[in-house]
Amino acid sequence: MNKTLLVFGLGYSAQAIAAALPAGWRVIGTSRDGSQGVQWPGTDMVPLLDQASHVLVSIAPDASGDPVLAALGDEISARRDQFEWVGYLSTVGVYGDHQGGWVDEETPLTPSTTRGEQRVAAEAAWQEMGLPLHVFRLAGIYGPGRGPFAKVRKGTARRIIKENQVFSRIHVDDIAQVVLASIMAPNPRRIYNVCDDLAAPPEDVIGYAAELLGLPVPAVEPFETAEMSPMARSFYAESKRVRNDRIKNELGVRLRYPDYRTGLEALLK
């Protein structure tokens, strides 16, 4: 039987997920300008909801809450028995700062940024809907067209050092295989951390990218004195290592890119 995945926000990660689906699947996606699928807001989504067997939400919340639930919450709720699987792409930012310590899916949510607080609220709102919901908390995303090489080549890459600062990352192809594994083996109300095996300082990633390109490794800049935008500085507000055992043990995922080195090497090829 053919399946239809309705994607709210057919962006970078969602496009990779859609491309990973087996033959026979139909994908309906939305974007703000209609360049990817249908334009939403601006299109009546009720007929498209009627066609969906699976739903993926990849739109970030804002100060007003989750935009999909705000506009279509009642229509989605009315179809809870129709959907075989619903996925929500969240972020590991919901855990907040752990000063380099470990977190897993059972760690209490203590976001330290406004964006993290909005994600916690959006996750809770979706969880209250009674849907066959699966939450995917994504680490820092990279992949084709999104990585450090362009900045290193341009000479704009920076190695900003903050003591004990580590980030978890995930290649977009591994996001796709995790979500696909969940679609094929639904476990409603489950939450999955989606990250690789090696949380690492950001300066190490930039340095390795420069080495792979055979270009000079950018000079070190102390975080305390580096000139940065408020948005860029906010990314250094949290340091943690994220456990990913659940995607391996429950979904059987074997990461294609278990660390940033294998991921960057593949991107360069």
Tell me, what's the shape?
A: globular
The low-pLDDT segments are none
**What fraction of residues sit in β-strands?**
15-25%
Instruction: State the name of the first-level CATH class.
Output: Alpha Beta
What does the radius of gyration come to? 19 Å
Order of strands across the widest beta sheet?
Answer: 3-2-1-4-5-7-11
Q: What is the average per-residue confidence, as pLDDT, rounded to a whole number?
A: 96
The CATH superfamily bears the name NAD(P)-binding Rossmann-like Domain
Category from helices, strands and their pairing: alpha/beta
Number of helices: 10
Stated plainly, the CATH topology is called Rossmann fold
**Main beta-sheet strand count, sense and barrel state:** 7 strands, parallel
Helix content: 25-40%
Please provide the ordered H/E string of secondary-structure elements: EHEEHEHEEHEEHEEHEHEHEHH
CATH architecture: 3-Layer(aba) Sandwich
The total beta strand count reads: 13
